[in-house]
């Protein structure tokens, strides 16, 4: 039976994934990690914030003062807790921001210098006005950075990134990841990997190159290198696709897809791929599906 696929939104992109796969996501916004918390009602949200505030109040500075400074209320009942970043000095602030998007909560911890406090709070206020919940079973529409079932409906230029680990059903020996970050590689994948790849092919018995060429996907310019080899009867794979991206571009970030089957506790390919054709079919379906979500930027 042919594998069923579905379209998944992450960051500002869409990618097709097997329906049966387990997806593990992570996201950074302006280089700081976002944490999606379980949905809570108003009372539960207040308890969450109060517990964190109490923890910060119990932390004592070298000066003898509590680390906690203040609670700042933002739009849509979002809040940020301001505290001293280090216990031994008071040169920088730590922020624990809790954005509300419907019933969903996105935690955004970061820090800055004392001089930039007002700028940071203005940034949090802007973000709090733009978080939205995505209706169940719907793909998001319009400008925004998607975090699971929420979207930050903004195109603020920043160093955002995301990572998607795809755990294939019945294939525990396969590592499959897709990732994106705002930035540009100095050299393309084939230029960087050329010398290393040549040495690998010369040293490893049974290692062969399946592909090594430019591999654009729609308007996305990218390279692809696929290597496979057999050792002790087991077939291993190292697949890589990369779009180098453009510097500081939300619409054209660096994009990566990698697939690996390496040495493991499994002695055969029963837990990975029955043939190169099966591996390539899955790889091509996924890579060919990657696209910028219409209107995301």
UniProtKB/TrEMBL annotation:
Q: Which positions are tagged coiled coil?
A: none
Where do the Tle cognate immunity protein 4 C-terminal domain residues begin and end? 139-295
What name is this protein filed under?
A: Tle cognate immunity protein 4 C-terminal domain-containing protein
Residue ranges of every copy of the Tle cognate immunity protein 4 N-terminal domain listed in the record: 6-103
InterPro entries documented for this protein: Tli4_C, Tli4_N
Source species: Paraburkholderia tagetis
Database matches in Pfam families = Tli4_C, Tli4_N
């Amino acid at each position: 039976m042919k594998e069923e696929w579905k379209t998944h939104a992450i960051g500002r992109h869409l990618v097709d994934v097997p329906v049966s796969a387990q997806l593990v996501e992570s996201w950074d916004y302006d280089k700081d990690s976002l944490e999606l918390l379980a949905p809570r009602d108003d009372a539960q949200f207040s308890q969450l914030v109060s517990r964190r505030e109490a923890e910060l109040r119990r932390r004592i500075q070298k000066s003898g003062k509590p680390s906690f400074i203040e609670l700042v209320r933002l739009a849509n009942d979002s809040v940020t807790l301001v505290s001293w970043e280090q216990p031994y000095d008071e040169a920088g602030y730590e922020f624990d921001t809790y954005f509300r998007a419907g019933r969903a909560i996105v935690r955004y911890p970061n820090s800055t210098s004392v001089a930039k406090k007002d700028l940071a709070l203005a940034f949090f206020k802007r973000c709090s006005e733009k978080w939205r919940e995505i209706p169940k079973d719907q793909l998001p529409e319009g400008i925004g950075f998607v975090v699971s079932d929420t979207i930050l409906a903004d195109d603020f230029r920043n160093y955002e990134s995301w990572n998607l680990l795809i755990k294939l059903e019945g294939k525990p020996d396969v590592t499959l990841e897709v990732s994106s970050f705002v930035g540009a590689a100095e050299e393309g994948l084939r230029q960087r990997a050329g010398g290393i790849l040549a040495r690998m092919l010369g040293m490893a018995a049974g290692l062969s190159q399946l592909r090594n060429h430019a591999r654009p996907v729609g308007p996305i310019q990218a390279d692809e290198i696929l290597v496979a080899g057999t050792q002790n009867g087991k077939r291993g794979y190292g697949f890589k696709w990369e779009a180098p991206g453009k510097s500081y571009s939300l619409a054209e970030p660096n994009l990566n897809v990698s697939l690996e089957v390496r040495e493991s506790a499994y002695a055969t390919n029963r837990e990975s791929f029955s043939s190169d054709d099966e591996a390539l079919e899955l790889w091509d379906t996924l890579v060919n599906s990657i696209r910028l979500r219409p209107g995301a930027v």
